[in-house]
Design brief:
The structure is a single chain. The chain is an alpha/beta fold and 296 residues long. Helices cover 45% and strands 17% of the residues. A 9-stranded mixed beta sheet has the order 2-1-3-4-5-6-7-8-9, with helices on both faces. Strand 4, helix 5 and strand 5 form a beta-alpha-beta unit. The chain is globular, with a radius of gyration of 17 Å. The two termini are 32 Å apart.
Length: 296
Amino acid sequence: MQTPHSNALDIVAARARVRTTTPLIQCITNTVVQQFTANVLLAIGASPAMLDHEADSGQFASIASGININFGTASSHQFLAADASIEVANAAGTPWVLDPVSVGGVEYRTSRIRAAAAQHPTAVRGNASEVAALAGMGLGGRGVDATDAVDDVITAASALSATTGGVVAISGEVDAIVLAEPGAAPGDDAGTATVVRVHGGHGLMPLVIGTGCSLGAVTAAYLAAAKAAGLPITGPTGLEAVVAAHAHFAAAGLKAGQVAQAPGSFAVAFLDALYSVTDAELAAVEITAAAVEVPV
């Protein structure tokens, strides 16, 4: 159920673009979630490619439609692969998504995630504690678990969006997708950000490994589909793509929860729901959007 503030977001059209264009998503992601992420991408109509070795990742990035970077269990090969792929993506204008898993937890991982964030990802997707830590306004969570609430890190997300120039998505019971508005004058005490909240999902989702990490890959797919359709992947159309990816997950989570009562069966039902969710079910996801004033 979209509100008047969110009527400009056409979630159904965004999903149709994914199915029409079948974006090829290169995933440099953690070993725990590789198979689940690949299955999720197939279920939404995208094509997965799990190339994460430095010897060929840069070359493959030149043909990929979008790239997902997730250092959850990063090896030296993956760090180097990400460096090469990000360089190619930025040169080609290919959308790429950074998932800052456990940023702030240990020093080396944090330094590499910060270095990637400095390369201007098209979108950042993480939990509240990861977003706060990456913005320099928090210490990170407990492993992969958030210790902050989504609403408490809107300012941090806006600051991170302003720094990267991209969209910042915060996962939680209600997801918040944030885009800082350009144009704050030097010396201003406050700026404006668009904050879109996506309601839905299900309480079993955090109990299935890969639901969060695979959402980064789905976000890359939605951004890649927008680019394939000739739309900008920054600004309002980039925001729409990121919101649509989260709405797809929210609708699928709700649908899966109607037939599954435990994590194992939910994982299977969730993949089925990602594939079978209808336009009406997508349109029924509650999405609210508002411009908010944030410190700068």
